[in-house]
């Protein structure tokens, strides 16, 4: 059994009946000095149902809780042995904290601006899901620039290509007149998507704000799938609703940042583009089969990585008196979807920049003291402490754990740390759903 897999062996842990004492209703179990929250369980259980063939059942619920308890036992054992988390683990814990801070900011401030999603909205997105549009755009990070251009374009749309040559630094967009080609649903920034798919053809629209600036749009053609049924809609409605909710959340977060910094932001475009090109080459080549990379390419990649490290404090953007550096970019990209970066590095940069701003805004609002933020950090620490404990035990054995050995180790720890389960708090998760 490999090191990567031994942590996830399914074990049975005996449950001790407990009375419902004075404890936060969102805590479903305590293990020694640590605890398991409803959020911990929901995240773990959802991942299991999504990524395996498991079906919701009392057995699977108990097994998931057993696994969470086991992790907490190992974490407590690590603390008893005064083990410490390595630098990689600490970095991942910090990323988890920042994600929790942004979620808290959304829950308490941004999310209040997101409206309820009605059936009409879902049906509209369902139609877009079965549509392709042919789109051109102009871009600038200052709305005032596009405000002066759009009256001219409305009067003479043929000048669209002329302004593309002026505004774009990218040669492909410059020479094609801002041509994005055929665009399918789930390709654009969420706010651009809403406007582009609903706007009429051959009409200049804008400026429209995205997560990375302002745009003027021109839709010149569209293709719609005609044969779609009510049954098709009902089959995807639930999944589509979740996708729309996520998009509306991103729009609200983008608007919050843009409103916060609309007059106080500067981006060094040449340095940003140079940095993104370096990172893109590294990421792209690392995603290919390294056996096929020639020695010369390896040398170039090594040079790119050395350059990035040597210039990690180079400022890419400023907002107010704060700076966003190459190091900040690399840090925030680690919490992002690699596909977004490979498909659109500029968009990935602006998402990372936005996340950095949102994190610092959450800290300014003292959301570090929010209980869910603290719980998320604790949960992340427990994961890495459990890992350190198992690695420390593995070094003593100098080989892998068997399932029996993990089971015996767990049973031993059960006698050392008090386990209390608050069954009603666990059941509440499923009552509310």
Explain what this protein looks like in three dimensions.
With 433 residues, the chain is α+β, with helices and mostly antiparallel strands. It has three domains: 3-106 and 371-432, Triger factor/SurA peptide-binding fold, CATH 1.10.4030; 131-224, Chitinase A, domain 3; 260-364, no CATH class. The protein is built from 18 helices and ten strands. It has helices at residues 3-6, 38-51, 58-80, 87-110, 119-129, 143-155, 160-167, 171-176, 190-198, 230-261, 269-286, 295-310, 326-333, 338-343, 345-364, 371-397, 403-414, 423-432, and strands at 27-31, 34-37, 131-140, 179-184, 204-210, 213-224, 265-267, 315-319, 322-325, 419-421. The chain has a four-stranded antiparallel beta sheet. The chain is globular and about 80 Å long. The two termini are 37 Å apart.
């Amino acid at each position: 059994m490999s090191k990567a897999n031994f942590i996830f062996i399914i074990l049975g842990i005996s449950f001790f009946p407990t009375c419902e004492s004075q404890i936060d209703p969102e805590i479903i179990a305590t293990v020694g000095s640590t605890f398991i929250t409803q959020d911990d369980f929901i995240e773990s259980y959802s991942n299991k149902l999504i990524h395996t063939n498991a079906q919701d059942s009392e057995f699977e619920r108990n097994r998931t809780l057993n696994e969470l308890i086991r992790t907490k036992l190992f974490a407590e054992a690590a603390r008893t042995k005064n083990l410490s988390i390595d630098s990689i683990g600490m970095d991942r814990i910090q990323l988890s904290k920042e994600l929790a801070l942004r979620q808290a900011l959304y829950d308490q401030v941004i999310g209040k601006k997101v409206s309820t999603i009605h059936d009409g909205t879902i049906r509209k997105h369902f139609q877009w899901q079965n549509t392709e549009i042919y789109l051109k755009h102009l871009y600038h990070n200052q709305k005032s620039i596009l405000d002066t251009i759009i009256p001219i374009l409305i009067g003479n749309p043929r000048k669209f290509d002329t302004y593309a040559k002026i505004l774009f630094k990218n040669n492909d967009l410059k020479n094609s007149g801002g041509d994005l080609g055929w665009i399918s649903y789930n390709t654009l920034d969420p706010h651009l998507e809403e406007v582009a798919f609903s706007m009429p053809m051959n009409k200049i629209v804008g400026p429209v704000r995205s997560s990375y600036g302002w745009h003027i749009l021109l839709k010149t053609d569209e293709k719609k799938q005609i044969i779609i049924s009510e049954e098709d809609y009902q089959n995807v409605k639930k999944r589509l609703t979740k996708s729309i909710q996520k998009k509306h959340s991103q729009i609200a977060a983008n608007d919050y940042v843009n409103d916060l910094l609309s007059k106080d932001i500067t981006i060094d475009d040449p340095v940003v583009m140079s940095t993104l090109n370096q990172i893109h080459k590294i990421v792209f080549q690392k995603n290919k089969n390294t056996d096929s990379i020639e020695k010369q390419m390896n040398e170039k990649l090594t040079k790119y990585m050395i350059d990035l490290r040597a210039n990690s404090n180079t400022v890419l953007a400023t907002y107010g008196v704060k700076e966003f550096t190459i190091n900040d970019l690399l840090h925030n990209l680690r919490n992002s979807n690699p596909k977004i970066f490979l498909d659109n590095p500029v968009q990935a940069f602006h998402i990372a920049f936005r996340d950095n701003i949102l994190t610092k805004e959450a800290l300014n609002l003292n959301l570090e003291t929010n209980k869910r933020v603290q719980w998320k950090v604790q949960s992340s620490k427990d994961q890495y402490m459990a890992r350190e404990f198992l690695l420390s035990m593995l070094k003593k054995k100098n080989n892998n754990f068997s399932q029996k050995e993990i089971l015996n180790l767990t049973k031993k720890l059960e006698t050392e740390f008090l386990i209390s389960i608050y069954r009603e708090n666990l059941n509440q998760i499923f009552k509310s759903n």
